[in-house]
Automatic annotation (TrEMBL):
NCBIfam families: psiM2_ORF9. InterPro entries: Phage_terminase_lsu-like_C, Terminase_6C. Coiled coil: none annotated. This is Phage terminase large subunit-like protein. It holds the Pfam family Terminase_6N. The lineage of its organism: Bacteria, Bacillati, Actinomycetota, Actinomycetes, Propionibacteriales. It comes from the Bacteria. Keywords: Viral release from host cell. Residues 313-456 form the Terminase large subunit gp17-like C-terminal domain.
Amino acid sequence: MSIPSATADAMLGMLDAAQHADALTPGQIATLIDPRTVQTPALDLIDAELDRLLATPDGRLGISMPPQEGKTTRVVRDFVIRALERNPDTRVVAGAYNQSLANRNGLMIRRAISSVPQLGLAISRDNGSKHEWELEGHRGGVLSVGRGAGVDGRPADMIVIDDPVNRTEADSELARDDCWDWWTESLSARLAPGAPVVVIMTRWHEDDLIGRLVERDTHAGWRIVNIPAQCEDPATDPLGRQAGEYMISARRNRDGTPRTREQWESRKRTVGPRVWNAMYQGHPSPAEGGIFKRDWWKRWTRVPQLTGTFIQSWDLTFKGTDSSDFVVGQVWMRQGADFWLLDQVRGRWSFTETIEQIVDMSRRWPQATAKLIEDKANGPAVIDSLNKKLPGIIPVTPHESKVARANAVTPLCAAGNVHLPANSVASWADDAVEELAGFPNASHDDVVDALTQALNCLNGATAAFQRFHIG
């Protein structure tokens, strides 16, 4: 690969600066290899985490991030070169879900080293296969192995694992067990004292390698960095974004402009809520669901006859417009043994906007005279304000945990007595089902709280319901 002369001075400047520093950053190495590299805030964060990893004895790092945003190249190629540049005697084991991908990754590193002689690294002439090679004059190099491949007798001064399970295998417990055995019985046994490990993957299943490392390998001190495509909580967002803000993508349009918000939204609609939450947000949920199973819900496409008991159920937020939490309002109807979700609104609203939403819902559904509002968060202030405007405000004070309240209504759901709209008649319905399926591990539970509050009250399970005789 030839380097354009327009960038030569900048590259030489980076190399000169590196002589007075510890080494080039992975991002700087990426630019040396390919001057067209797009450095995004997400890749800046990954660079910082990788340098932290190298500086931490026995460091353990897991990174999840949306696909096609540069994480594999940055970690598998640029970080490995960074480690070899720092210490050419570093013996790296690079793993992937099969040998073909492992070979491709090993060849990618090898070609990059050969393309930038300014790094001062060279591949040994007598040891240069795709999957295994050493540096000229040093014992360091790369051994690339697919999942399940043995590494007996091969010491590892660093291990890099790239997507140990692919999409088609993600739901296979056998494949996940095979991956875990590969890590515990083979790879980890080859680690030298102080050796760092990094796992990068797109998450498809909550019981994947990162999930198991967090749950089972607790003594190792794994640091897990999840970079979601869209900010969920400004207080914890790794990129410091505002709620709902999308990441700056490393992918570019043909004219060089970054992916637009509209393009992100289109992608979100195309893949659907389950894939979006797992693949793009890093929050996989069980295929069948957690506490609430996906196949429990009856989905209606035609509005049922509006007769029975109607209520509104509201879950409020602790903050205003800058909150990561959502306000959720729902309208429910009970007919005999069945419960129907008829309407829902959801948004990040200020106190005043929340009042307006409740008033507006009450205009649309005058039948729902009982309005359940949890007597927490903004609840007391909202209740006090609405008592002067609307009849039927019912404060609800929960005395059990969210999980306990959810478990209390699961028999109704499992029996097929709970009816939710189909997405064809309510565009928010599939997102609601996905939040329910992910509970209690999903990033939000506002829909769950409103639903369990409504069902518990309509089923006569709360003092508020019995006191106001609304059923």
